[in-house]
Amino acid sequence: MQAESRKISRRTFLKESSVAVAAVSAFTLVRPGRVRGAMTESSRVGAIVLLGPPGAGKSEQGRRLSERHSIPVISTGDQLREHVKRGTPFGLQADPYMKAGKLVPDSLMNPILEERLSQPDCVRGFILDGYPRTLAQAEDLDVLLKNKGLAPHVILLDVPTERLLKLLSGRRVCPNCRRTYNLYYQPPKKEGVCDVDGTALVQRPDDQPKVIRRRLDTYQKETQPAIDYYLRQGRLLRVNGNQTPEKVAAEIESKLASQ
Ligand code: ADP
Asked: pLDDT, tens digit, for every residue of 167-209?
């Protein structure tokens, strides 16, 4: 299984993703304008892509978008952590990359994403948090969506580096419900425990200062080309991430509605 997964090339992934392609095509038959206005039970939202540096608040905004539009957030980081926790062959291989703050190779990442996208809860649409993270992944995603003449809604959360450092080093996560807090900006009501379910909050191993630097460097080097790619296509919706989560959410909704 391990050796096999290493052998899966990008091309093979796309070829073998026919099931996922079919699933994605079926529910993303939506033009960007469809996000506008009130969502009904039966309406399709399509694919919303959340881009931004580590710590920019993608998971918080993903949660809000998910509640508002009743579609799941697919966080590739959470998917990978789940595989690590379960000790799957993918998880065992991905773990050292994640601990080092490096990107997990596409040969591991893409099949995990493919599997998740084929789940029935994605039928009306989904929010991608943490994917694409490279130009290659952006192109892979485009192939998936373009197969049926579709384009994703791409949102970029802009946050200055000094604030990112505080956001990342102060981040605490509830291991039970995945809600995130920040010691500087959004502390829990009671120190050290989740407001929702009272579980003790934890700090992610990759939120250690040395690893934070590496993750920010990786973002600059690897993800910036993906952002430039969307920029060139005129699809990038820039949102000021340096404001309260409520204001960020409102700006996202208004940008989506005006697209
Ligand atoms: P953050 O965005 O705050 O860095 P995530 O939870 O999104 O955190 O990701 C944690 C780690 O998971 C990343 O540092 C990386 O190792 C891995 N990862 C997540 N998404 C991807 C992806 N699309 N491609 C490769 N690796 C990924």
From this structure: 899 999 999 998 989 999 889 999 999 999 999 999 988 888 8
Kindly name the residue from 204, 235, 238, 255 that is annotated as catalytic. 204
Nearest to 80 by CA among 120, 131, 14, 40: 131
The owner of tokens 């809860």 is 121
Tokens of 29: 């038959």
C-beta 188 within 6 A of ligand 1: no
Instruction: Given the residues 63, 81, 116, 171, select the one marked as catalytic.
Output: 171
pTM summary value: 0.76
Cα–Cα distance, 73 to 62 (Å, whole number) = 6
Residue in the block written with tokens 């191993």? 205
From the list 94, 74, 83, 80, the residue with the least C-alpha distance to 141 is: 74
Q: Which residues contact residue 41 at a Cβ distance below 8 angstroms, ignoring those fewer than 6 apart? A: 70
